[in-house]
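Many introductory courses stop at the sequence. We go one step further.
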Amino acid sequence: MQHTSCTEDRIQHLLDRCLDGLRQSPTAAHHWNVLMCSAGQSMNRWSLEELVKRDPDNFIILLQQILKKTKEVQEQCQYELVAPLAIMFSSTLLQTPYCPPDKGLIEKAIEVFRCFLTWPEPYCSVCKDLLSTLQLEIKAPGISFQRLVREEQFLNSPGQSSKTMTVLLMNPCEVPADFLSVAEQLSRIQHSQEETYINLIKHAFQSALGTKYPLQSIHRALQPKNVNELGSIFSTISDVLEAAAAMKDPVKGRSHVIQGLEQLRESMRVPASNGRRSDGMLQTLPLPTAKCYMFHWEKDNFDVLNTLLEHEPDDQETNGLRDLRSEKFSPKPMNKARLSQHLYRLFSKPKKSRLLYRAKSLGNTESKDLLVVRDKPRSNSLPQQVKLRCTEPFFQPPSQTLRHVCFRRRPILSSDEDNQNTTLRVVVFGADHVAGKVARAYNSLRRKESACPRLSRVFRLQFYFVPVKRDSAAGQGSLKSQGPVVQSPKGAALSNDPHLTATGDSTNDIANLLGMLDPWYERNTLSLMNLPANVVCQQTSKTESESYDSSYEQRLPILADLVLYYCRNASRPTLIQLYQAELTLAGGERRTEVFVHSLELGHTAGTRAIKAMGAASKRFGIDGDREAVPLKLEVVSNRVVISGRSQWKRETKVCTSVNLTKACKNPEELDAKMECLQLTMTEVLKRQSGKCKKGYNQQLSTTEVKVDKVQVSGAENTTFAVCLDQDEKKILQSVTRCDISVCYKPDSSTDWRLRKAPSSAQIQPLNSTFCSLLCLPIVTFSGALP
């Protein structure tokens, strides 16, 4: 009893440490303090799991402690703790060896978490998902564990074809070598089907029957069987569990599972129970490592993901379209009529049902009246409707008619209607410049998939972002600029030498934004940046406990455990606004680029290009703003004011730099205007120049203002450099004009639906416009908090 009490105290202490700091008010000072101390706190959850799995009884203790804490949270209305507690309960229950039905623990959990269904989003949705899991576990014990392993290990039968693939994308030049090593280790881990089948069968018996039949007896009965026999037994168990989960009565469902397992035990020739308390003991059966694929990723596209289609043989049969390449060398079972039919399918217009599906999932601009208005917002990070004057072209006078614009944030490639059987987790590691690369790759994928669906037709795409401090000192790859040759502020040409090393700096504002929106992301993912690489990447020792089955477990570094925890427990996308820059070059060429974090113009962009040259930058030197060559620019911006009205301003400035950054660095800025940009201009007020020495900017002034639209033009044939998202590979020179705004596309179908409503003319102003804000969906644990 004394040992049990001591364990309960340790579990309670670690649980409190896991939640410590999440319940305070989100002030800027608090956010900074939490970020600094969260390095140690991020290890508390991992330490708690390590402690709990040493003894199967510890899982029940932790579940009870979470329920106790949840009741306190409900009484004190501590909103920030609801999602973490629900997620911790779900992940703990998933790994619980046996939950005795006589304790009524799941029934108590349903009673506790049901109270949060009346709370606002995202708390009610997180608890709703947990309640769905609890209802399944009452009827079919252990089914959550079974489904997860089936999907991650590709063990599904023809009737149950769901899969989950995990892809790790890293640029070797920009992450620590230890991170690369861990990712490669994850991608090499392979569990044999035989051992996975055996452990899943043992897990099913233990989850439903506890210690009635010793796992050693079940293991001995299964060991002589081949993989086909094991697969048949596993398929029978899966059918039993799924049939029980589909039943309405929990008692009948559990009885169905027990009856099915007893029949299976007889066929497996496992000795029957003598009716007395079994000598068997509970064992903790760890989750096998998910199958992972690791790619070196350096380009602004996701073309590397196309190689995964090789693992999906049914891809060519999707939507009734067959690939003629598979029949190219077939016998002459290919007659003229059949060939004509294939050609007709390939080149004819898609049917209305297929067009409707593509319109919903890809935001097809040709869908017109096929789209329907959603009844709920995509995310709580922005209200569904705001009044802005954003449809006016640039430089219209403020006297123009104010139009009513309704925005809906949309990820475009992910939608609630997705019915793909395979989920593709895309995990990207890096700083803000890598987030920009993800944004450009996502935008490129959106355009490709709208024209010809391929990846989105097979996979349900989910994007995960793991922040990493840029390892500039270890950069060994090429950072070659795209576009024209870059000119330094001194006028010297910068080389496009592919052997230049990366020494530029990069922030982690996007990850900090995700952390402010989701405290559990901040605690378990963002805080990785504050831990030394040699700590999170070191190999952990195996759990020493006779009740822990480590026979097929491959111990992983802490980083691998944290990444898998993130992928398995985070499921709600937070929509990060994308921005577009329409650039006009000196030769008249026009191009449109997308960014998610920042756009740097002038001296800042040129300096970043010089830093990217590494040792070669010493030839040019890195000047500060006082030595920079001034640029005469015409700046027109639409300033954001509290009233929501437009405030256009045109001015001619002599500047060294004009920079735009996502205006969400502090919790105080998390309001309905998260799509705004912070415009920072460094203006030269007084310049000293002489015949014998170099010019000098004697007096500088920095101006900051929030805007949603900006145009910067070079006056008197002035050209300038532009850098997107702090990425040295996205620096363009000889730019004469740059138009910046949020990414959105008009949605005329919504107007069509409103015209059908008799009272719409009385509710909505005339000339109302509906737009979909194009956003990058990054998966977090709870999504954006309101």
